[in-house]
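Why does residue order matter? Because the sequence determines the fold. Keep that principle in mind as you read this record.
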Amino acid sequence: MRMILSMTGYGKAEALLKGGRLTVEFRSVNGKNAEVSIKSYLLPKDREMPIRKKIAGKLSRGTIDMFLTWTPDDSAAARNINGPLAADYYRQIKDLAASTGLPDPADGDTNYLISTLLRMPDVVDQGRSEIIGDDNWPLVEKAIDKALEAICEYRIREGEALYRDVTARVAGILALEDEVESYEAERIASVRSKLGKALEDLHVKYDADRFEQEMVYYLEKMDITEEKVRLRQHCRYFMDTIDNEPCPGRKLGFIIQEMGREINTTGSKANHAGIQRAVVRMKDELEKIREQSLNIL
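Structure:
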């Protein structure tokens, strides 16, 4: 039996480089294909395409975001403050305060003002364009590989939870199908009784043989034997697929559609309160299976 994988995952790793620490993170959710987005300009352009291919090859499917975060050493950050840019930000803040009637920022806490300016974009120049070079690329690539392994392990754990949930719900649908079968004899007897009583209330003579023929025809239209057989077959096919296919997500979606068709037809033919209640519960279980299956790789 294969263990399924979830498309939801998270992985993180770090590389210690000269001047600071590079953090690599991957986050993924469900998607039709491998949709890779690199949320950083730290990665050199010539490295981007090979990394995209590596990510897509490793994770197969999903909406996948890659984050690169640079945390410089304190000494490195202190040597690279962009003074002219900080002064320009300060001027804009003063102009904004004057135009809106707010207090002059220079009249407030100087330390708070300076710390705010240092957090403004690109005020602290960390030499980002030179962080990832040929000399430290092996360390960076190793961190990327470790983060990919971490997200794969996360997907395995999530897949185990998904498997337990959806297979338990399929078993629940089969149990409800057994419940439907238990009502069938009662349903047929009830229909016969209602129709017979209706004729008696009309106080008319009728041909008993013809009545029986019409009754058989009517009950055949209400028969749900084919729906029961097909639903059980679909449930078996679902279990066979999830146990043996390497990436069953898409196929499971098609099987779920067929299961829903048989459940809906059963409901339309039910004509029995107990069967209708069981059908509603089956629909609820199937909808939860459908939602969960969207995350199955």
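The longest helix spans residues 137-202.
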